Sequence to fold (160 residues):
Amino acid sequence: MKAIIVYYTFTGHTQRAARLLESLLSCDHEEIELVVPYSGSDEEINAITQNQTENKETPEINKLTKDLSNYDTVILGTPVWWFDIPPAVRSFLNENYLSAKRVFAFITNGGNVGNSSRTIKEFVPSLDGNKILYLDFDDETLDLKVSIQRWISEIFHQQG
Ligand SMILES: Cc1cc2nc3c(=O)[nH]c(=O)nc-3n(C[C@H](O)[C@H](O)[C@H](O)COP(=O)(O)O)c2cc1C
Fold:
C-alpha cells in the first residue's frame, strides 16, 4: 500500500489529526491550499465562506506538490463548513479523479457534519461511508490519538 493523506485546514484541527495519522502510518501528506487565502475579519470570512460553500464554488487551489498517480490509497481530511465540505476541498475533489483508488476520509467538525460525507461520496462513490472517521473538536471527551488508532485498525487491518 502506498498512501497519502490529503487535507485542508483553516484553524489547525484537521492538520493535527493528519499529522498524527501520518506518524502512525508513516505515509506522505499533501495540504490543500487556496491560491488566494481568506483574509479579513471573522464576519467577512464567515460571509465569504458561507457564500462560496452554499454556492458550491471551486476556488483555485495550488498545484499539488506530489503526483497522486503514485499512490493507491488516498486519505482525505476535511473540516465541515456550513454543513458541507469547504470550497477548497470541493476544488480538490473536482480536479482529482479518485474513484480508481482506495479512499478513506476523516471529517473534523464542531458537532454538525451536515452534508459533508454525502458530498464527498458524490465525488468518490466508492467511498465506504461506514468507514468515515468523524472527529468532533467541540467534544471535550475527544481523544484524538485513540480515535485515530482505532480507525486505522478498522480500515486497514480488517481489510485483508
Ligand atoms: C467557516 C466555518 C464554518 C463552520 N461550519 C461548521 C458546521 O457547519 N458544522 C460543524 O460541525 N462545524 C463547523 N465548523 C467547525 C469546524 O468544522 C471544526 O472546528 C473543524 O475541526 C475545523 O477544522 P480546521 O481547524 O482544520 O480548519 C465551521 C468552522 C468554520 C471556520
In short: Strands lie at 3-7, 28-31, 73-79, 102-109, 133-136.
